[in-house]
Amino acid sequence: MRHHRPAGSVNNSRTRLLRHGTWQAAKWKQVQVGDLLMVESNCLLPADILLLSSSEPKGICYIETANLDGETNLKVRQSLPATSEHKQPSQLHSLQGQLVCEPPDDDTTKFKGSLYLDQVRYPVSLNQLLMRGTCLRKTSYVIGLVVYTGADTKVMKNSKPVPLKRSRVERESNRYFLLLLLILAFFTLFTTVANMVWTSRIGPFAWYITNNEISVGHFGAVLITCFIMFHTIVPISLQVTLEFMRIFQAYFIQCDLDMYDPIADIAAEARTSSLNEELGQVNFIFSDKTGTLTQNSMVFQGATVAGRMYGDAVSNGAEAYEFVSGVNSMRSEAAQGQNKDLDDFLSILTVCHTVIPERDSHDNLLEYSASSPDESALVYAAKDMGYELFERSLDTFVIVKVNGEMRRFEVLATFEFTSDRKRMSMVVRCPNGAIRVFCKGADSVIFSRLQSPHLVSETTNHMSKFAMAGLRTLCIAVGDMPQSEWSRLHTEYENARNDIERREAKLALVAEKLEKNLRLLGATAIEDRLQVGVPATINDLLLAGIRIWVLTGDKLETAVNIGYSCRLLQPEMEVRTLTGSSLSQVRSAVAELSHWLCGIASVKGKEPALVIEGESLSWASHQSVRNEFIDVCLQCRTVICCRVSPKQKSDVVRYVREAMPSAVTLAIGDGANDVPMIQESHVGVGLKGKEGLQAAAASDYSLSQFRFLKKLLLVHGAWNYHRVTIVILFSFYKNITIYVTAFWFALVSGFSGQVMFEKWTQALYNVFFTGATPFALGVWDRSCSVENCMRYPQLYRESQGSDRYNFKVFALWMLNGVYHSAIIFLCVLLAVSTGAVFSDGKTAGLYYLGSLVYAIAVITVGLKAGLEHTAWTGMSHLAIWGGIGNYLVFLVISSNFFPHAGGNFAEVVGYDRALFGSGMFWYLLMLVPALALTRDVAWKAYKKTCRKTLREEVFEMEKLRKDPSTVLFQGTYRK
Amino acid sequence: MLEPVEDSQAVVRPEDDDNIDDEDLEGANNSAAAGAGNASGATSNRPPSSAFHQQKLPAWQPLLTAGTVFPVFLIMSIAFICLGVALLLANSNISELSIDYTDCKRIGDRTPCANLVKKPEFYYNYSVCQCRLEFKLDKPMTGQVYAYYALTNFHQNHRKYVKSHDRMQLSGRRYSDLDAECEPYRTSADGKWIAPCGAVANSLFNDTFKLMRRVGSLETVPWTVKGISWSADVARKYGRVDTWNGTAKPPNWAVPESARSPIGYTGDEELQVWMTVAALPTFRKLHRRLIHSDISAYAEGLPAGNYSLLVNYSYPVAGFGGTKSFVLATAGLLGGRNAGLGGLAIAVGCLHLALCCALAVLHTHAKRNRETDPYYGMDPLHRALLENTPTGASSADTASEDGDVSVVARRPRTT
Question: Residue spans with biased composition (Polar residues) (chain B) (predicted)?
Answer without folding.
Answer: 389-398
